[in-house]
Structures are given as structure tokens and as C-alpha cells.
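Sample intake — Carbon-nitrogen hydrolase family protein
Collected from: Sneathiella sedimenti
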Amino acid sequence: MTEGIKLKLAVVQMDCAVRDVTSNLQKIDRFAQTAGAQNVNLAIFPECATTGYFISEDLADLAEPTDGPTDQKLSEIAARAGIHLAVGTVVADGGKFYNAQVIFSPSGKRLATYYKAHLFSTERLSYELGNTPTVVDTDLGRIGMTICYDMIFPDYFRTLVNKGAEIVINSTNWIGDSYQQDVWGWSGVTTQGMAATRALENGVIVAMANRTGNEMGFDSLGHSCIIAPSGHILASIPKGEDIAIADIDFKGEDLEKWRSIATYRLDRRPELYD
């Protein structure tokens, strides 16, 4: 019998002050304390939440080693709130820069740091590719870590699920300019639908925390969400800064029954896909 899943998840949709790490950490702290006061088990924050996104010229000043001052502050925030905390950061490692996601336990212990595996467009000029699909064991279950563009690649999500991920988190900053939005209809509705598809095709929980606001002429698209294994949207934030919380209470027999109906992974025919 599959064990049930019972926990409280939160996604935080926040604007970021570009290059102002202190201000961003203060905002993360406020949202984390709000989550802790509502007995949230895990709160997920956007991509580059500590620094802002368009920072390529300032990476030498903003990127820090693992367990540097920003990690230490995030550790304190997680411990004070008493929650698992996942946040998008930027890391300096071996003379190279990485778009990263870090997760802490309620005791403040850093459980894992993940480096973004798929870099979009000009990100490749600033960051190195991460090469390690990361699934971390926590008291809440096995959590697969992803950042933004990773979600575009279904094989990558499935790799995390095949490694045992029960929840896949995504710290993101889906953005669009007026051309993308007005001509092609690129929107947060699209990215939310993609998150729902990833949850449905893998039979896992997906929690996506997107940014809001505007930076360098690009709108961050919002629509942060928490998705059930069926693709059902349990909680979402269409626009603006906010926190969305969902109570996850799936009985083992219900998970088994759903997965006996939605046999998508079992029905794959990889021999036909090359």
C-alpha cells in the first residue's frame, strides 16, 4: 500500500529589489514567518529571489560560496520560522557562477544546493550548467529540485521522479515582454498549465514559485501554484505579491487508485521515441 502524503505547502510570489540582497532577505524573512505562523511545512521562493534576475554584470559581487553570508541568513530564517525553506540564489563555486536553489530544514540545516541544469538564452553567458539532477530526502518526503527553464523539459522532470521524487519544486522567474505577451499570448496561464501537465504526467505534487514585478522591461508573469498529482490546481496567485498555501492530505489508497487510472508512466514506449 502506498503511504499517504500529509503536509502543508506554500509558494511565495514576491518582487525582488535588484542587487539589494539585504532588502530581499528581509522580505523573505517576513513571508517565511507568515508561513511558519500558519504551520506550513515547506515554503518555496522564486528564482534569484535574493538578488534579482538581471545581474550578470554584478555576479562577481553578488554571488557567494555555499554557506556564505546569504546562506547563513536563510538558515536563520528557516530556523526562526520553523519550516523547510527553498530559495533561488546565485552561487560562486570554483571561480564559476551558478543559478542555484537551496533548501534548508526547520533546524536551519542546509539540506542541498542545486545548480540549474538548463540555461535559457543569455544565461549561458553568465552561468555554468549544473550537471546533477537533485532529489533530497527530507522529513516531508523526497523533494526534486528545479529552477525555471528546467520545467520545459519533461524528460528532466521524469528523471527526478524516477529517482524517487514525490514533490517537485520549481523556483522560477517566467518573464515576457510586450511582443511575447501581445503577439503570442505568452502568459502566466501558460506556465501554470505547464506545471499542471508536469504533475499530471508524473503523478507527483508540483509547487512552482514565480516572481512578480518588472525588471529591464520584462514582466514577471506570476501565477505561482501548487498542483496535485492529477493536475488539479490546489492553490495559486494570479498577480502581485502574496503567499498561497495548500493542505496536502492524500490517503495512500487514493494515491494508488489515481495512479491505477492515470497509468501514464507505465504506458510509455521509449523504444519508439528515439
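Post-analysis note: The chain has one domain: 5-267.
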